[in-house]
Design goal:
Elements (H helix, E strand, L loop, with lengths): L6 H24 L6 H15 L2 E2 L12 E4 L2 E3 L14 E10 L2 E10 L5 H19 L7 H14 L3 E2 L5 E3 L6 E5 L18 E4 L2 E3 L5 E3 L6 E3 L5 E3 L2 E6 L2 E4 L11
Antiparallel strand pairs: 1-4, 2-4, 3-12, 4-5, 6-10, 7-8, 7-9, 9-14, 10-13, 11-12, 14-15
Helix pairs in contact: 1-2, 3-4
This protein binds 2-amino-4-trifluoromethylsulfanyl-butyric acid and cobalt (II) ion (CO).
């Protein structure tokens, strides 16, 4: 069932979204060669605590950390570890979710560790551009599939592939609600609901330099590219309104123009 949110409810989600934006900003600022992914987790947890918020992730199906940290060929759901030291040239995806008064927000960024290859830098630029293109199509009157079509077009124009095994999602009182939000063109036989006022979505392209296939590591969480190619992930939570998409996890919560 798809639940639509009132303006008061999206205001709560925006509060959670501002905490998520702060967590991601602080983690981004802390990323450098030598820092461990566990240190980033601690920084994020401290911001949640100060804000009186809780993590959407910690304890979710037993997930053991506050954020996800996914390095290089790790696509999503990497578990922070004191043994994982970042190295110059890595890229790291940082995914965070916060709950305030029962309302969730969820966002992710991928950032370079020191200087990275031009190939890696381009992957980050293109994946963020794909997210922006998807958000711009989250317009009342469009369908969910228009979002994925826009994401896919940007990724494939640069020769990259879009992960199929994981998708974006509705969000609200639960982190994962209907509808699913694929990052690819609608597939016949799959639901493709209309975008209506009050729909809140987490759009989250996962883009690989190589093929789209995925594998899950023995820790049962970390998802990697099957061909070990680099992968990037960007995510925002947004509300679909009569005035267009409103990003709830950007620092100012501004409407995004196409
Ligand atoms: N942010 C992820 C998503 O968008 C969820 C992380 S999975 C968890 O679906 F287990 F860490 F919570
Ligand atoms: Co998400």
């Amino acid at each position: 069932m798809i639940t639509l949110k009132t303006p008061d409810q999206t205001a709560k989600m925006r509060e959670a979204g501002q905490v998520v934006a702060t967590m991601l900003d602080a983690c981004r600022a802390a990323v450098r060669p030598g820092v461990t992914t566990a240190e980033l987790d601690r920084i994020a947890a401290e911001i949640l605590r100060k804000a009186g918020a809780t993590s959407s992730f910690l304890g979710y199906y037993g997930y053991p950390a506050t954020i996800c940290t996914s390095v290089n060929d790790e696509i999503v759901h990497g578990i922070p570890s004191p043994k994982r030291k970042l190295r110059e040239g890595d890229i790291i995806g940082i995914d965070a979710g916060a709950i305030i008064d029962g309302w969730h927000a969820d966002a992710a960024i991928t950032v370079p560790v020191g200087g990275v290859s031009s190939q890696a830098a381009k992957l980050l630029r293109v994946t963020e551009e794909a997210l922006r293109a998807g958000i711009a199509r989250a317009v009342v009157g469009n369908r969910i599939g228009d979002i994925g079509a826009a994401v896919q077009e940007v990724a494939e124009r640069h020769g990259y592939s879009v992960v199929r095994n994981y998708v974006g999602h509705g969000i609200g009182r639960a982190m994962h609600e209907e509808p699913q939000v694929p990052n690819y063109r609608p597939v016949r036989g799959q639901p493709n609901p209309p975008i209506t006022e009050g729909l809140c979505l987490a759009i989250e392209p996962m883009i690989n330099i190589g093929g789209p296939e995925t594998r899950t590591l023995a820790d049962r969480w970390t998802v990697v590219t099957a061909d070990k190619s680099l992968s990037a992930h960007f995510e925002h939570t947004l509300a679909c309104t009569a005035g267009g998409p409103v990003v709830l996890t950007a620092a100012v919560g501004a409407a995004v123009a196409a």
